[in-house]
Design a protein that fits this description.
DNA binding, MerR family transcriptional regulator, Multidrug-efflux Transporter Regulator, Chain: A, Domain 2
């Protein structure tokens, strides 16, 4: 199967598949003329990579354990702690910690923004600080 067919079969684009290959996530065999040839094994790997990315891992996270992706059977993730990328490497724990840090940062940012505008019906003195006129939204 050629790159366009592989992309369509896995719900991605040929450009993404080339990017995965460039980052070491995928190494499809080539024909004598140099064209990429995707078989069932490569399709399963693409699906697994996309699943890991959809779970919040970065391309760098997945690339860090790309050599172990073939240990995972089929195109669905095994239970946590199984061999391969999802267990034992610390990748998942590091990504969860990074996500928790980002959630904390965004929560603080949201709280600061929310405290800078009065709630409907609140007295103006409850505002933590004035919003510059250029940022104030006109009333409907």
């Amino acid at each position: 199967m050629r790159i366009g067919d592989a992309a369509a079969a896995t719900g991605t684009t040929p450009r993404a598949l080339r990017f995965y290959e460039q980052r070491g996530l995928l190494l499809p065999p080539r024909t004598a003329s140099g064209q990429r040839e995707y078989g069932p094994r490569e399709i399963a790997r693409i699906r697994l990579v996309r699943q890991l990315l959809a779970l919040g891992l970065t391309v760098e996270d997945v690339a860090g354990c790309a050599d172990r992706l073939d240990l995972l059977e089929g195109d669905t993730l095994p239970p946590y702690g199984s061999p391969g990328c999802t267990g034992g490497t610390g990748v998942v724990q590091r990504r969860i910690a990074a996500l928790n840090d980002e959630i904390g940062r965004l929560t603080r940012l949201r709280d600061r923004l929310a405290s800078s505008v009065p709630e409907p019906g609140a007295a103006p003195e409850t505002v933590a600080g004035p919003i510059p006129e250029t940022l104030a939204c006109p009333s409907p």
